[in-house]
Design brief:
heterodimer; A: about 110 residues; 11 strands; B: about 110 residues; mainly beta
Amino acid sequence: KAGVTQTPRYLIKTRGQQVTLSCSPISGHRSVSWYQQTPGQGLQFLFEYFSETQRNKGNFPGRFSGRQFSNSRSEMNVSTLELGDSALYLCASSFSGGVQETQYFGPGTRLLVL
Amino acid sequence: ELKVEQNPLFLSMQEGKNYTIYCNYSTTSDRLYWYRQDPGKSLESLFVLLSNGAVKQEGRLMASLDTKARLSTLHITAAVHDLSATYFCAVDRGYGGATNKLIFGTGTLLAVQP
């Protein structure tokens, strides 16, 4: 079974630009969560989607948004990039987000904002 | 607001020795997860602990959960170099029965020296 895939793996942008990251969950998984990892703030939850609906949201500004498609693939978008958005963005999938389920993480997209 | 603290932040140990990583969290939760991250890589699920008193073991790693003390431990037995990585604990704070909103600890960087 293929794992969680994320594209692109690396990205360089400049301040003010916007970026879209993509995540394809494990086949059959319907829940996709996004996390930001930085040296200063650690791993922080961005949002979670299930059946095309945002079910949970973290404490990030509105510049961070996401969506999920009918095939469970998810995208996150960051508009008006700031230097502090440089991070590793990880997505994770699970079957339905149930309490006994493990989240499987993708390899991440490393974003550098110049 | 839920806070998850790990200690120590950095652990240098010799091969063959035993040690414990501690994970404290500030509000009630019955769901705690341990992950491993190798440098430049994504997160790998180690354990899912779902109830008070839960204990799980895999190889040289054993995790336990005490929900009353809001404490989880990850015990390393007879460490080997391959265990060198960063270990994260995470508590689930999803709402409405849904999960997948993980609040991560700061991580413990484990370096096992020959």
